[in-house]
Amino acid sequence: MKIAILSRNKKLYSTRRLIEAADSRGHETRVIDTLKCYMDITSTKPAIYYKGDRLDGYDAVIPRIGASVTFYGMAVLRQFEMMGVYPANESVAIGRSRDKLRAQQLLARAGVGLPVTGFAHSPDDTKALIKLVGGAPLVIKLLEGTQGRGVVLAETYKAGESVIDAFKELNANFLVQEFVKEAGGADIRCFVIGGRVVSAMMRQAKEGEFRSNLHRGGTASVIKLTAKERATAVKAAKVMGLNVAGVDIVRGKEGPLVLEVNSSPGLEGIEQATEKDIAGMIIENIEKNAKPHRTRTRGKG
User: Fold this and answer.
1) Is 300 annotated as a binding residue?
2) Do 259 and 197 share a structural domain?
3) Same domain, yes or no, for 20 and 79?
4) Which cofactors is this protein said to need (predicted)?
């Protein structure tokens, strides 16, 4: 197969591993910098151009679209879909997962376990918002944040009130969420491919930090999931419409709670922690499913 990988840096671990996995299985790959593409948007013969070349003949595209280029990245991916190229993750699904509020609403509607969450832009009653999520400590998240950025733990009511008021002054959209104390600063990254959990790791925040992201010094270890945790991760990915997803959950008193569903999960941490060939599994899933114009969520927004 001929596979396009949408990535702004071919030296990134995840991109390199996908190239290696595809090459080892006899496929042809090309890394395409999303922002350097330009498009001919016509109804009869849509096209994408890159460095003067028309991108033709691709069987599949793997989107590794950073959060900062989501809008243009999804436009390029939609163009590939219009050309009949099979996407490892569809543009509609990526859009759902990148909109934190929409993702929470879709997961809640499907009955997926979530921390108690409130949404606000400029609430007149900050006290009521804090009370809604059970008081302090509480977590406040900017909707645009990634990899733990824009996430604040307010340990006291007064701190929560100050952060919320500051975000209001900035005209920022944010979520307010209960702090799941029993998680102990740890969460679980479940890697879902093709409707099943293929690997999982527990990420533990470093001392003095509540965010367990590996980018922020968290540590990773292999973990055995319960049947309910597996089912929750699979359902969360399915609700988003993602074939490949990193589903982050915490262990709450009543069971697993989903924190986030990531449409471009990094491979380095999970591969090193579990010693599994996740990149190879992604390529294998594409081999099984890649067919022209094969998109499930087309037209559903």
Assistant:
1) no
2) yes
3) yes
4) Mg(2+); Mn(2+)
